[in-house]
Amino acid sequence: MLEVIRTIPIEYYVYNSAVLFTIGVFGVLTRRNAIIVLMCIELMLNAVNLLLAAFSTYLSDAQGQIMVFFIMVVAAAEAAVGLGILVMIYRSTKSTDISLLDKLRN
Amino acid sequence: MNQLLPLIPFLPFLGFVINGLFGKNLSKTAVGLIGSGTLLASFLLTIACFNQVGASGPIQGVLYEFMSVGSLHIDFGFLVDQLSVWMMLIVTGVGFLIHVYSIGYMHDDAGFWKFFAYLNLFIFSMLLLVMGNNFVMLFFGWEGVGLCSYLLIGFWYTNKEYGAAARKAFIMNRIGDLALLLGIFLIFKTYGSLDYAQVFARLADSDPTTVTTICILLFIGAMGKSAQIPLYTWLPDAMAGPTPVSALIHAATMVTAGVYLVARCNGLYSLSPDAMHLVAVIGTATAIFAALIGLRQNDIKKVLAYSTVSQLGLMFLALGMGAYTTAIFHVTTHAFFKALLFLSAGSVIHGMSGEQDIRNMGGLRKSMPVTFWVFLIGTLAISGFPLLSGFFSKDEIFAYAYGHGGPVWWALGLVTTLLTTVYMFRLLFITFFGEFRGTEEQRHHLHESPRVMTIPLMILAALAVVGGFLNTPHFLHLGHAQWLAEWFGGTGAAGLPVIPLAEMHLEESTEWSLMLITTGLVLALIVAMYTVYTKRSNLPVADASQSGLTSVLAHKFYVDELYNFLFVRPTERLSKVFHYYVDIQGIDGLVNGVGRGVQALGTEFRKLQNGNIEYYLIGMVAGAVLLLLTMFA
Amino acid sequence: MTLYIFLTLAIISVIAALMMVFSKSPVHSVLFLILTFFAIAGQYILLNAQFLAVVHIIVYAGAIMVLFLFVLMLLNLNRDTEPQKSGLWKLSAAIASGLLLVTMVGALHGTIAISTPEQQNPSVGLVQNLGLVLFRDFVVPFEIAGILFLAAMVGAVMVGKRDLKV
What we know:
The complex is a heterotrimer of chains A (106), B (633) and C (166).
Chain A: H1 3-7, H2 10-30, H3 34-58, H4 63-93
Helix pairs in contact in A: 2-3, 3-4
Chain B: H1 7-22, H2 28-56, E1 59-69, E2 72-80, H3 82-105, H4 112-131, H5 135-153, H6 160-191, H7 196-201, H8 208-225, H9 234-237, H10 243-252, H11 257-264, H12 266-270, H13 273-294, H14 300-320, H15 324-351, H16 364-367, H17 369-383, H18 389-405, H19 407-432, H20 440-445, H21 451-466, H22 483-488, H23 508-533, H24 548-554, H25 559-606, H26 613-632
Antiparallel strand pairs in B: 1-2
Helix pairs in contact in B: 1-2, 1-4, 2-3, 2-4, 3-4, 3-10, 3-15, 3-21, 4-5, 5-6, 5-10, 6-8, 8-11, 8-13, 10-15, 11-15, 13-14, 13-19, 14-15, 14-18, 14-19, 15-17, 15-18, 15-21, 17-19, 17-21, 18-19, 18-23, 19-23
Chain C: H1 2-22, H2 26-46, H3 50-75, H4 87-108, H5 127-136, H6 139-160
């Protein structure tokens, strides 16, 4: 049995992930800079990754880690496309402030 | 033949479909050919049917089961017995002639194709009405012809008055239809079937009150369709339709549906003397009443319309006397001479470029000789000139009135026929004799109608002349006496005679004297009318300047005004009340209120959808919290 | 010992994340986020998921965050251009996220009952084992992920192009 499983309850990882996730949510809610918002989303994804890896180890099952790889794939793709869109928005509005993005309303 | 039976109604239906869907893009020749051709085929098939019925009795066929609910089974089935096939001959035969006539009459109308489509649909409905083997089929056709009548009266719907006339016809018919429907319900309740053969086979032990109720309900239905008092006012207004329509629907075929209904149910009526008495009273009253109104009308078609109402009254008098065969006989001769009269009136109107007021005509016999001669034949036939068709059929009605009802009924019938002679010859003399009174333009344009119109007229004239020989009385020893009565006396579907032979109970000398009195009076009147109306000073004057009884007659006894006062205006006032309080304030208020409420709510909720991403994000988080709470709390 | 390492890494990651959210300058934010990622990579190593930790560093710190930095510099964003939200808004955001945390913790507390297998496989997180699982059980999702990447690449190029002609 691994050292980590013996000494650290799984709950600790759960709480750690939850806190990181919540910080990510808080960042998304408070920041108006679209780049920071994207970064906060990355943080949230990582919180989930951490949880998946922890469970993978505790259950001795590799599938959880495979899931983490897929989430990384999606996160990378999302970051690429998101930043591309952001550059375009900046070109047209000269700003990355998401509060200005209410064009869909009308 | 049984397999070909459905073709008879469905060929005109095919014509309706083709003309109705594609008629707009077809040439007028093609439309006319399709319209008349399908009907001609039907007519030929009907003749084949007629031969088979004569040789081997009724033909029956079921196309499919129309509906089956509990003990109610209704087939889309046909019963072609002696009565049906006779009506079919009239409908398809006269209908074909009128179709051909219409090709000429309607030639310049923009709705040519529509007209033929409607006309074919009418023939289809009328054939279903007479061919059906149960009351539901009859009702189906009954409503179908009502619809076509509505469509064709309002054919020139851009004229508001014509539209109103169409609506009037429809509504008046609905009143009768409701009673007919109730009668059909009662028949089903009493006899457990709606099939003619089954119902008529179960008549033996029926309750007299129920039978009387059924008969009266059916008769009210007939009143509406056949324009009897008090539901007759729609028929004169129905003259708004094109003249061939007046000839086909409002003279020859549809309006006789009521007579057909009563004749078809003769077994029922024979069980109820009270109902028959009512039929006779209503028929006689209508006959005299309408004839009186006809005396003072100045519209050529209105005169003929009131004449039709009056003749229908005579048919119901015959029915009321138990002379069902005689009634159908008069339907037949009336179809010939009234179609003839209407069509020749149409020819006059055509020649006069749409003029219908006889005060603006006169002297037309020189410029329209064919029309004049056929109109004269029609007039003589309807007046009962010896040996023409009307002579035989009317004489038979009066003989039965005398034999079954008594001298009073006979006298009332005689009055009607004398009035008929008066208004018909007045019409003839004013229209065709004397000097032309129209405008110069009309005189210049005046012409005889084309061949396609005059040939049907001539055929109808021939029929109006010889039609009476179908059913000559015994004492004259002319041809095959009482042929039609024997034809209808054949065995029908229920194993009984279609229409039992009616006994006349009259001495031969009495019959002779009745006929001679009638004929003598009619001939005397014709001479009198000639001397009166060929004088210049006796021309009709404007309605407004008439006084006394003539004014009342010219205003049609103020019946329309009375109905307006009694029914139309109260209904309108009630509608206004309902319109304002129930509809606008109640229902509309409710609907609009709901709409306004939603709108107000939307305005509030709209503030949430401010398009700002942050609000959406926080909403999303709140939603996630709630979701977790509901899942785990 | 392991517990202390875990706690240290956890505290670092949380503090760095908070700094990332609160720092005024976007560049600082990026750097703090990278720090967070390194702490998470430490957690992975602690969990005996070495390959995952390596990939994590390469992908996040090496690729994604560099991309973020590039964009920041490209757009020339700094502390002065950083837009700020009102205090009331920040308060409500704090309440919302606090509620979320409380709910999540409350929901998860005491409900996690996993039975750790007696027979541990220490090579779960090793590249050989992961490769076997990935290419045996997850071949189709793997290929689909490849297509997703291709699509994202094409999409990013198309979006970023000037004077897009469709």
